[in-house]
């Protein structure tokens, strides 16, 4: 069975040999996947959030409301395209395009399946692969920040500029945690190639549990559970999704960096957000969920689950599952404050990531460090401890005493304090005017009582 798996795993030598028309087919497929998945993702999110809110969601345009997203896209296309007078016209036009292109380009190095036969040519289901493919993914994610920053700057308005600056600080901060999480994958897999990382998560090792010979879990989401948790949290922050949707906090920034955008340019920004969500779900699947490989229970009873075109089904199922988690978080958690969000990234995720990488480096120095049994013994308890730490309810702070209570609690003989109600004493002129009016008020009151 392992021989069947190994025969299907592409290597770097399998890329660069396809004819031009086959490469073009792969490029069109990757682009179509990102576009169609985005359109369905918008519908999927509205339906799931509607069900969570006990309401139907879109259900009129087409079967199950599937054409609602297409109708919204046509509506945006026919809206008036407004260009602010103070905007930089060239940058204002290209900024949303940069965000979409960077999000779609990441799909070029994501493996959708193993080696298959397409019109008689034996080729991997992946556009291309390079020895540093994961760095290409991180570079595309970093370049997407330019689209947001330039969009806020080129609008020529204050609120978009503030939204763009705040968005750049947020995305850069969480890219640090994301990059450190991927370091653990490099150390374990021994390669930065995406196809090589998927191959390293294959079912090759077996464990003896309670006298039974069972396959050892190969997904890095299990072996490197702390890295998986931190990577997914950083992914949510990187894609500006709730509860980290601070760049588009309508109640605070008037829609943030995209305030001055309308019509198709606004649609491109919205499209880039959903493309990034689908792309990062595909990247998470590749790095931590075994890529296109079927789960272990399926491969135990079906030897051909990881051969042919079936792996695409497992890959799409994992991507949909992660997109559901994105939607689930949006329908469940409230938006964080910006200071809480930045403190969480720099003072929680970053130190934990560094400590976890140090632990993995220590395991690497041990003989036979790459044994999955050792990673399971360390990674799973560490991940459970991390989840318990993040989800443990914090103690409610005790209500602070009022200023007047603090004044009353001062020891006897302390220096006198000014009034603590923040009321300024009236000026001499005000006191004189009030004193002049009081006799008239008193006389008027006496006359009314006599009547």
TrEMBL record:
One of its GO terms (biological process) is aerobic respiration. Coiled coil: none annotated. One of its GO terms (molecular function) is NADH dehydrogenase activity. Its EC number is 7.1.1.-. The keyword Membrane applies. InterPro entries: NADH_UbQ_OxRdtase_su1/FPO, NADH_UbQ_OxRdtase_su1_CS. It catalyses: a quinone + NADH + 5 H(+)(in) = a quinol + NAD(+) + 4 H(+)(out). It is a multi-pass membrane protein. One of its GO terms (cellular component) is plasma membrane. The chain crosses the membrane at residues 20-44, 90-112, 132-155, 176-198, 218-237, 266-289, 309-329, 341-363, 375-392. PROSITE patterns: COMPLEX1_ND1_1 (PS00667), COMPLEX1_ND1_2 (PS00668). Residues 397-451 are annotated as: Disordered. It holds the Pfam family NADHdh. It is found in: Cell membrane; Membrane. It comes from the Bacteria. Keywords: Cell membrane, Membrane, NAD, Quinone, Translocase, Transmembrane, Transmembrane helix, Ubiquinone. NDH-1 is composed of 14 different subunits. Subunits NuoA, H, J, K, L, M, N constitute the membrane sector of the complex. Belongs to the complex I subunit 1 family. NDH-1 shuttles electrons from NADH, via FMN and iron-sulfur (Fe-S) centers, to quinones in the respiratory chain. The immediate electron acceptor for the enzyme in this species is believed to be ubiquinone. Couples the redox reaction to proton translocation (for every two electrons transferred, four hydrogen ions are translocated across the cytoplasmic membrane), and thus conserves the redox energy in a proton gradient. This subunit may bind ubiquinone. This is NADH-quinone oxidoreductase subunit H. It comes from Micromonospora citrea. The lineage of its organism: Bacteria, Bacillati, Actinomycetota, Actinomycetes, Micromonosporales. The gene is nuoH.
């Amino acid at each position: 069975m392992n021989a069947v798996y190994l025969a299907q795993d592409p290597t770097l030598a399998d890329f660069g040999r396809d004819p031009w028309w086959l490469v073009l087919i792969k490029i069109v497929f990757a682009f179509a996947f990102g576009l169609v998945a985005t359109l369905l993702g918008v519908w999927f999110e509205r339906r799931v959030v509607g069900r969570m809110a006990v309401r139907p969601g879109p259900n009129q345009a087409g079967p199950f409301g599937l054409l609602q997203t297409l109708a919204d896209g046509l509506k945006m296309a026919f809206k008036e395209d407004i260009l602010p007078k103070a905007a930089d016209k060239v940058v204002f036009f290209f900024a949303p395009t940069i965000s979409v292109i960077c999000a779609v380009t990441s799909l070029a190095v994501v493996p959708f399946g193993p080696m298959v036969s397409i019109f008689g040519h034996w080729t991997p289901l992946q556009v291309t692969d390079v020895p540093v493919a994961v760095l290409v993914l991180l570079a595309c994610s970093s370049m997407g920040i330019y689209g947001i920053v330039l969009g806020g700057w080129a609008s020529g308005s204050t609120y978009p500029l503030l939204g763009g600056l705040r968005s750049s600080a947020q995305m850069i901060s969480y890219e640090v945690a994301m990059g450190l999480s991927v370091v653990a994958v490099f150390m374990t897999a021994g390669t930065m190639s995406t196809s090589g990382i998927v191959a390293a998560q294959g079912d090759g090792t077996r464990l003896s549990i309670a006298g039974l010979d069972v396959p050892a879990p190969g997904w890095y989401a299990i072996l490197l559970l702390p890295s998986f948790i931190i990577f997914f949290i950083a992914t949510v922050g990187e894609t500006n999704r709730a509860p980290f949707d601070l760049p588009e906090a309508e109640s605070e920034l008037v829609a943030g960096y995209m305030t001055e955008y309308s019509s198709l340019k606004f649609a491109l920004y919205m499209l880039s957000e959903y493309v990034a969500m689908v792309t990062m779900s595909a990247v998470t699947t590749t790095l931590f969920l075994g890529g296109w490989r079927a789960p272990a229970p399926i491969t135990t009873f079906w030897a051909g689950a990881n051969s042919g075109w079936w792996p695409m089904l497992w890959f799409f199922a994992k991507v949909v599952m992660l997109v559901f988690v994105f939607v689930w978080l949006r329908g469940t958690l409230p938006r964080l404050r910006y200071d809480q969000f930045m403190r969480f990234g720099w003072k929680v995720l970053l130190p934990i990531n560094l400590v976890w990488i140090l632990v993995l480096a220590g395991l690497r120095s041990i003989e036979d460090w790459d044994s999955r049994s050792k990673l399971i013994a360390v990674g799973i308890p560490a991940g459970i401890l991390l989840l318990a730490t993040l989800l443990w309810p914090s103690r409610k702070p005790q209500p602070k005493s009022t200023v007047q209570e603090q004044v009353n609690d001062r020891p006897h003989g302390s220096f006198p304090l000014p009034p603590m109600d923040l009321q300024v004493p009236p000026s001499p002129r005000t006191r004189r005017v009030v004193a002049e009016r009081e006799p008239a008020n008193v006389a008027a009151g006496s006359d009314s009582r006599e009547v």
